[in-house]
Design brief:
6-stranded mixed beta sheet; single chain; alpha+beta
Length: 426
């Protein structure tokens, strides 16, 4: 890294730079049923460089990024840097500055145990499938241990490590007339057995119920109940709409200080962007620009109190940068899951496609599996679609008391939104 730094310092026009060297050791396993089909281990190293160039009058700033691999020769590295400087000069963003941060105490040094972690996950999958009496078709397990060295022009020099795990799981369910095959992905930094067991059990239940599901009735309007990762996807509207970049680029319907849930009769949103969350793959001390990540309480009792975001857009809005935070926490609501499901509703467990427009609040999805809750009876359904706008309906939004922690998201397990449009097929 010091050699790359010397090359960067040879360019007087480079105003700032960030160098990040990442070494990843990984282990992978692929199972068909309960039989190991293949496994492998690998190690890769690369260095990313982000450089910034200001114009002579200091009114604009451009940047460019390159990736350097161990196979690159010194001459090739010089050529890459030269091209990056030329590219950065072509970008004319409004001028901004990066915070000068040289001191940071960060203890996040994870020992390398990719094989041990992977074997623990494999044992957990088999054990959970056995208890759920589920038909496990196949699955893949990936475990990565990342060692990172960071250096910027201000002299901030860090060494830390992280871990990320990735699963792909396929399960089956059969009836006399058809066989259902479902695919699911999972990401996490460390194995949370309780959380993942709940998600696995839901997947096995989904497969069995999907095989016997009836067509979705034509309900026109209904209260919608969402769970697990669909809750994260929908509540992501608040996350995106409070980001400094969205505010600056007029891609948000919010303004700081606004009561975004005026006249609400449901639960008020409480949202905090976090610099770290147990089990997340995004627990790093700094963002891509070298800004030290700082947690921020963004929405409190339905009021947008503080924007969050990267150094560039924070500078434009004249607010303190929090860095590009990736972890989020939503406070649970006033009702238990049992209470949310007590009255008639359409509960969707899984979509073929769930689309959420974070700038407008519009959402829609094709129902892969859901349940019609009517008079205390739950009936599995499939087909049709739902649609609505979160920002038009969130005055009657109810969040479960029970919360989940899944990778980068902490928040209610389920939510209930009143007045959603339903296009049935029966």
């Amino acid at each position: 890294m010091r050699n790359i730094e010397k090359l960067l310092q040879a360019y007087p026009e480079i105003s700032d730079y960030v160098i990040r060297r990442r070494q990843t050791r990984s282990a992978e396993w692929f199972f068909i049923g309960d039989k190991l089909d293949q496994s492998r281990r690998k190690e890769v190293t690369y260095t990313s460089v982000k450089l910034f160039v200001d114009d002579l009058k200091g009114k604009t700033r451009g940047h460019a990024e390159i990736t350097i691999y161990p196979t690159h020769t010194p001459n090739e590295i010089k050529e890459l840097l030269h091209e990056a400087v030329l590219s950065a000069k072509l970008i004319k963003n409004e001028a901004y500055v990066l915070p000068v941060e040289k001191e940071l105490e960060f203890k996040h040094d994870i020992p390398e145990n990719v094989v041990e972690t992977g074997l623990e996950i494999i044992d957990f999958i088999f054990d959970t499938a056995k208890k759920a009496k589920g038909d496990l078709n196949s699955f893949e397990v990936f475990v990565n241990h990342n060692t990172v060295e960071f250096l910027n022009k201000n002299g901030l020099h860090l060494n830390y490590s992280t871990q990320d795990c990735y699963l792909e799981v396929i399960v089956n369910a059969k009836t006399a007339t058809q066989e259902i095959e479902l695919y699911k992905e999972y990401n996490f930094g460390s194995l949370n057995k309780e959380s993942l067991a709940n998600q696995f059990n839901a997947l096995f239940t989904e497969a069995k119920d999907r095989a016997n599901a009836a067509p979705t009735p034509k309900l026109e309007k209904a209260d919608l109940i969402l769970s697990n990762d669909n809750v994260e996807a929908l509540l992501g509207v608040y996350e995106s709409s409070t980001n400094a970049a969205s505010l600056y680029n007029h891609m948000s319907n919010f303004t700081m200080g606004q009561n975004i849930q005026e006249n609400a009769i449901g639960d008020k949103i409480e949202m905090t962007m976090l610099n770290a969350l147990e089990g997340s793959i995004y627990n790093t001390p700094i963002d891509a620009d070298g800004v030290i990540l700082k947690s921020a309480k963004v929405i409190e009792n339905g009021i947008f109190t503080q924007a969050w975001g990267d150094a560039r857009h924070a500078c434009y809005l004249n607010i303190t940068p929090t860095g590009s935070l990736r972890n989020v926490s939503f406070k649970g609501g006033s009702r238990s899951i049992k209470e949310l499901e007590k009255e008639d509703a359409l509960e969707v467990l899984d979509f073929s496609s769930f689309i959420v427009d974070s700038s407008t609040g519009d959402f829609s999805g094709e129902i892969r599996l859901g349940y019609v809750l009517k008079n205390g009876v739950k009936t599995a359904i499939s087909g049709g679609s739902i649609s609505g706008n979160l920002l038009a309906l969130h005055h009657q939004l109810y969040l479960s008391k029970e919360t989940q922690r899944s990778n980068r998201f902490e928040g209610p397990i389920k939510l209930r939104l009143c007045g959603v449009s339903v296009a049935g097929i029966q």
